[in-house]
Specification:
The protein has one domain. The two termini are about 25 Å apart. The chain is mainly α. Helix 2 packs across helix 3 and helix 10 packs antiparallel against helix 11. The protein has eleven helices and no strands. The protein is globular. The longest helix has 27 residues. This is EamA domain-containing protein. Keywords: Membrane, Transmembrane, Transmembrane helix.
């Protein structure tokens, strides 16, 4: 249970940490992100006992690795902007609701059997999104909505890519993750060079802690799945509901974010949608 709790706490702290730093310059942000991935590479190499000389590079789908490696640092840019413009509560909710994207894509791209219960969850999810965005006073400008949807779509696509990567049983998932971190670091470095301005090493050091948080989330999430191998739905529902509820509370009471009636209704509907999705996984509904 401790692994699950640490993973949840790390996930909550990721958004909290980025929002607290208020990184406004793109170059600073990508220095921060680059440092994050260097830290992830270092930690995964030692904690997952990666043996580079034993990696059979022919087994890996480099197209998926490259796309995922590009998207991860890019999405962090939109995550930062969304946290800045829309707040922690709404950003965390949109990030967690992105789990609906792989379900939609499974029907459209992968020919998965259509089911009415999943269709209901999809509809409820989008209703919750519109409710969360519905109040005119709730930072609902086009730019703010754009960043929220970028987070929603970005994390949803990445989740889909990871599911595709996991299908390849011949390639070790942890090693694939390690290669994705390397790719993400390279992409982040590219962003650093294309944006003008001086290199502020303060953000490099701040990024190390961010990398520890991010890696902690992944590392203990994997451990939690191993610990609850017989009940993965417990991990699913704890992480998703925990982040939504925790992010909402932190946003409301620490960052003083306003929660309008429509937003509250949307949050409850989002929670209900995730519970329904968990019931589908358990084959109860």
């Amino acid at each position: 249970m401790s692994s699950l709790a640490i993973s949840l706490l790390s996930s909550l702290l990721v958004g909290f940490y980025i929002k607290s730093l208020r990184i406004s310059f793109k170059k600073d942000l990508f220095i921060f992100i680059f440092s994050n991935y260097l830290t992830a590479i270092f930690l995964s190499y030692f904690l997952f006992h990666i043996q580079i000389q034993k990696i059979n590079f022919e087994l890996y789908n480099y197209k998926l690795i490259a796309i995922t490696g590009f998207l991860l640092p890019t999405i962090l840019y939109f995550l930062n902007k969304s946290l800045e413009t829309s707040g922690l509560a709404r950003t965390d909710i949109f990030q967690r609701l992105s789990l609906i994207i792989p379900i939609i894509l499974s029907f459209v791209l992968f020919g998965e059997h259509f089911s009415y219960n999943k269709a209901i969850v999809i509809i409820l999810t989008f209703i919750s999104i519109f409710l969360i965005l519905g109040n005119k006073g709730a930072n609902s400008s086009f730019k703010n909505i754009y960043y929220l949807f970028a987070v929603f779509l970005g994390y949803g696509i990445v989740d889909t890519l990871f599911k595709q990567i996991a299908i390849n049983k011949s390639a070790d998932f942890i090693t694939t993750l390690f290669l994705i971190f390397i790719c993400s670091a390279i992409v982040s470095l590219f962003y650093i060079f294309i944006f003008k301005g001086k290199i502020n090493f303060k953000y490099f050091f701040l990024g190390i802690f961010f990398g520890i948080l991010n890696f902690s989330n992944i590392y203990f999430y994997i451990k939690a799945h191993k610990a609850f191998a017989q009940s993965p739905t417990l991990v699913f529902i704890t992480m998703n509901l925990g982040v939504i509820i925790g992010g909402t509370l932190i946003g409301r009471f620490y960052f003083k974010e306003k929660l309008y009636k429509s937003t509250i209704y949307g949050i409850f509907l989002a929670i209900f949608s995730i519970i329904l999705l968990a019931l589908i996984q358990l084959k109860i509904w």
